[in-house]
Amino acid sequence: MATYSLANERLRALEDIEREIGAILQNAGTVILELSKEKTNERLLDRQAAAFTASVQHVEAELSAQIRYLTQLPSGIANSDSGKK
């Protein structure tokens, strides 16, 4: 049972990463839209740029942790668990 709990936790972490990537894309879109205006709102650009940077750093750290975890698994374990129900 603990294996399924750990697997579910890993899947939830990946779903969180996916949501954060969506937020990154929204921040980038907001910045691009704002930059297309004749007069830009510098405060909005600064906030969006800071949010973008923080989100990218968080996603990078989380993906690195996921990759580290996967590289520490003995080969064959991840594949053998995928067929169980």
TrEMBL record:
Entries under InterPro entries matching the protein: Mediator_Med11
Q: Which UniProt keywords apply?
A: Activator, Nucleus, Transcription, Transcription regulation
Say which species the protein is native to: Monodon monoceros
This protein's source sits in the domain of life called Eukaryota
Q: From the Swiss-Prot or TrEMBL record, what is one GO molecular function term?
A: transcription coregulator activity
**Taxonomy-wise, where does this protein's organism fall, top ranks first?**
Eukaryota, Metazoa, Chordata, Craniata, Vertebrata
One of its Pfam families is: Med11
Protein name per UniProt: Mediator of RNA polymerase II transcription subunit 11
- Partners and quaternary state? Component of the Mediator complex, which is composed of MED1, MED4, MED6, MED7, MED8, MED9, MED10, MED11, MED12, MED13, MED13L, MED14, MED15, MED16, MED17, MED18, MED19, MED20, MED21, MED22, MED23, MED24, MED25, MED26, MED27, MED29, MED30, MED31, CCNC, CDK8 and CDC2L6/CDK11. The MED12, MED13, CCNC and CDK8 subunits form a distinct module termed the CDK8 module. Mediator containing the CDK8 module is less active than Mediator lacking this module in supporting transcriptional activation.
